[in-house]
Amino acid sequence: MGAWVAALDGGGTKTATALADRRGAVSILPGAPGCNPQDGPDWESVLRGALAHICRAPGGLAAAVLGLPGFGEVPAHDSAVLALLRNHLQMPFEPMNDVFLAHLGAFGGGAGVLVLSGTGSMAVARGSSGTVRVGGWGDVLGDEGSAGWIGREALALASRASDGRAPEALPFSRALCARLGSEAQGDFAPLTWLMAQPGTPRSAVASAARHVDALAREGSPEAIRLLRAAAGELTHAASAAALRAGLGSDFPWVASGGTFRSDLLLAALAEALGRPPQPPRLTTLAGGLLRAAELAGWAPDGRWAAHVDAQLRAWA
Q1: pLDDT of residue 291
Q2: Where would I find the H helices in the chain?
Q3: In a domain, 128, yes or no
Q4: Is the dihedral of CA 260, 261, 262, 267 positive or negative?
Q5: Is CB count within 10 Å lower at the N or C end of the chain?
Q6: Helix H segments across 89-134?
Q7: Are residues 249 and 153 in the same domain?
Q8: CA 207/CA 213 separation, integer angstroms
Q9: Are residues 249 and 148 located together in one domain of the fold?
Q10: Are residues 186 and 59 in the same domain?
Q11: What are the mean pLDDT values of the chain's consecutive 10-residue runs (316 residues total)?
């Protein structure tokens, strides 16, 4: 029986891993870039490196839980990921979508709805009917209410205003392009800016959401409408997930993701759902370590989980 359990929280931009022993002592392992096989060309080498760090734990591993971006969505990717995990992990392990892992931490394994809004968006609910997800269809098919969606809607509105199809939004278009910087100039300013951005178009479009929030705080009617529309989309996702999971309409919820740095968006979502979000019970990695300890047969209690969580919060 190994001396440690491990949790991995993978994402599109970063991968974090941690270990915990039976006493609840935590060891933070080196961070790494994202490991999403859907859009990360180096995902395999990143994940292999993270697994190598995990497997070098002195005394060995008893179990591991891994939150992986995109897991459960594309069968070919899942097969490749599972082959890599089986090659490295010779102990009980449980892979899951990274948002499912976030839900595990947010509710400590209990019932509720996690509303995620970052570059993409998704709602995950756990209730009497099981665990379900709503959304997460990507920037082409969905991701409504995400930073990517807000940025896309804002840039599209600016484009329509600049060529005369939405003259009432011309002040918004000019203000947004001014915030985007020197690359947003000329008759095709939104497109010119987008084509000049490094990285993927998805991340560039999502970065425009923070400017929408800034304009909303300055009183821009168009920016305020965009944030309220985003809250409406997230409300639909949360309510649909809750219904499918058997939670009814009066469900606890937790907000997760960088888009919620916008106080205006968070307040609009709380208003639409009729109650404020509750704070997450555990960090994502603490939730993973708790589940890994259960998988190892350690029977961890609330004190163990709280001790692990406190160390991870202090590290963060």
Answers
A1: 94
A2: 43-55, 75-88, 98-107, 138-141, 147-162, 170-180, 189-195, 201-207, 209-217, 221-245, 263-273, 284-295, 302-315
A3: no
A4: positive
A5: C
A6: 98-107
A7: yes
A8: 11
A9: yes
A10: no
A11: 88 84 89 77 83 88 90 85 87 90 90 92 94 87 91 91 86 87 72 74 86 96 96 97 93 93 96 95 93 93 93 87
pLDDT at site 187: 66
The answer to whether 155 touches 194, Cβ cutoff 8 Å, is yes
How far apart are the C-alpha atoms of 97 and 122, rounded to whole Å? 12
Given the structure tokens 């019970």, which residue do they identify? 281
* Structural domain containing residue 45: 4-108+281-315
Question: Do 145 and 254 fall within a single domain?
Answer: yes
Flag whether 114 is in a domain: no
> CATH no. for residue 50?
3.30.420.40
- How many structural domains comprise the chain? 2
| Per-residue DSSP letter, 142 | -
What pLDDT, on the 0 to 100 scale, is given for residue 103? 93
